[in-house]
Amino acid sequence: MNLDFENLKKCIRTLDSSLKLLEQSDPEAEVYDVYRNAVVKGFELTLETSGKLLRKVLKDYAANPGTVSRMVFKDVLRLAARHNILTPDEVGRWFSYREARNETAHDYGEGLAENVLSLAKDFLKDVETLMNTLQQIQEESR
Predict the structure, then answer these.
(1) pTM to 2 decimals?
(2) What angle (nearest 5°) sits at the alpha carbon of residue 102, between those of residues 14 and 59?
(3) Of 80, 72, 125, 120, which Cα lies nearest the Cα of 100?
(4) 84 torsion bin: left (phi>0), alpha (psi -120 to 50), beta (else)
(5) Which of 32, 54, 82, 101 could pair covalently with 25 via S-S, beta carbons 3.0-4.6 A apart?
(6) How does pLDDT run across 79-130, given as a tens digit for each residue?
(7) What is the DSSP letter of 29?
(8) Is 6-141 assigned to CATH 3.10.450.50?
(9) Which of 44, 56, 64, 65 is nearest to 134 (CA)?
(10) Residue ranges of domains in the chain
């Protein structure tokens, strides 16, 4: 298995920077909305990118790798827990992240954006943990 983590690393850095800039902004300033939108989009992109890498890793655990490609995201997370890639607590948080992402993708509004903002710091920690775990799995498979 040869995974490229550079895109995910860039997504994480960009999301982290956007979040820091948002926190330094005045909520009444127009730039606050720009940074908030950047956090929401960065959250979505980072979630999708990490999900794709997770699917690639899980294909090595499946009897039929094609089934992993067709799984809904929650089933991918459950499979990751079965193989000790994610803990049950992490899976619960990832369910929340996915739900927030789905809500913002279908009905963007200030309230939904604020929900993503409330999850963003924990998400950054969890996505970095997942990336480190996937990198470790890759190293062990060599």
Answers:
(1) 0.91
(2) 80
(3) 120
(4) left
(5) 32
(6) 999 999 999 999 999 999 999 888 776 555 566 677 888 899 999 999 999 9
(7) S
(8) no
(9) 56
(10) 6-141
